[in-house]
Design brief:
Layout (H helix, E strand, L loop, with lengths): L8 H17 L6 H8 L4 E5 L2 E6 L4 E2 L6 E2 L9 E5 L2 E3 L3 H13 L7 E2 L5 E10 L4 E8 L1 H4 L8 E7 L10 H11 L14 E3 L7 H5 L11 H8 L4 E5 L2 E5 L4 E5 L2 E5 L1
């Protein structure tokens, strides 16, 4: 009788990891979460005897609509604000009161604050749930940008809800457009993307771009190809492996030197 050969579990796991890494090396599709993570650099927070602080800034966003309910960074309970169909749905007031009552029994006071239009925030976490058609972004206030003293670093969880089945078919650019309706990337401050912002050439030097015929930019093009096609952008946001070239009429995102998204 032939002997049954048993393959160790560790060997199977190692083989699976090899297959996954090989598939990515061969150009396997990048997940939506990975694409969003490349577009939105999350903030890194830390704490010491003086309290919480920003260790490394993330992508700076601007609040465009009111209704996002925030709590101090130290709070463990964060109520979700839903954004659906262009409308902000603040957390249920009864639910908020219930959590506040529970915290009161523990000797704590639940403090909430609505983010105001124009305030600057950082993304601190991005999650994608294809099954629920939700993209969840946790944000933290940039208190230095907002002139808040003392700093509280209010945080909030925003759920971007898409129509049933839409998220599975949506491109990263389409999702970013929806996020941008409520939390667009700030382009008017040097603190954007952790301060790694390079301003473009003066307006007169940008004239050839405005007068030139529209050129086609495609996914997978290199930075050299884009520069050769469109010329120098008005602004470059440098995040190391990811760069964003901002032109007058479009925004091109590069991941590891190749175009990963066009808006």
């Amino acid at each position: 009788m032939d002997r049954v050969r048993i393959i160790p579990v560790a060997v199977i796991v190692m083989y699976a990891l090899f297959v996954i890494s090989h598939a990515r090396a061969q150009g396997a599709p990048v997940s939506l979460r990975e694409q969003l993570a490349a577009q939105y650099n999350v903030v890194k927070m830390g704490s010491d005897s003086s309290g919480y602080s920003v260790v490394e800034p993330g992508t700076l966003l601007t609040v465009q609509k009111g209704g996002i309910l925030g709590v101090p960074y130290s709070d463990s309970n964060v109520l979700s604000t839903k954004y659906e169909g262009g409308t902000v749905h603040s957390p249920n007031s009864m639910l908020s009161k219930g959590i506040g009552f529970g915290m009161a029994k523990l000797g704590k006071v639940q403090v909430t604050r609505l983010f105001q239009v124009g305030e600057k925030v950082y993304p601190s976490k991005i999650e994608v749930d294809i099954g629920k058609d939700d993209v969840v972004m946790t944000i933290v206030a940039c208190d230095i940008c907002n002139g808040m003293d003392p700093a509280t670093y209010n945080k909030a969880k925003v759920v971007f809800h898409f129509p049933k089945g839409a998220l599975a078919k949506a491109s990263a650019g389409e999702v970013e457009d929806t996020i941008g309706q409520l939390l667009p990337i700030a382009e008017d401050t040097q603190q954007e993307q952790g301060g790694q912002v390079a301003q473009g050439a003066p307006q007169q030097a940008a004239a050839p771009e405005q007068n030139a015929e529209p050129q086609t930019i495609q996914l997978g093009m290199t930075t050299e190809q884009v520069l050769g096609t469109r010329g120098k952008p008005g602004k470059i946001v440098d995040q190391g492996a990811k760069q964003i070239y901002i032109y007058r009429d479009m925004k091109v995102t590069f991941l590891n030197g190749k175009v990963s998204d066009i808006q």
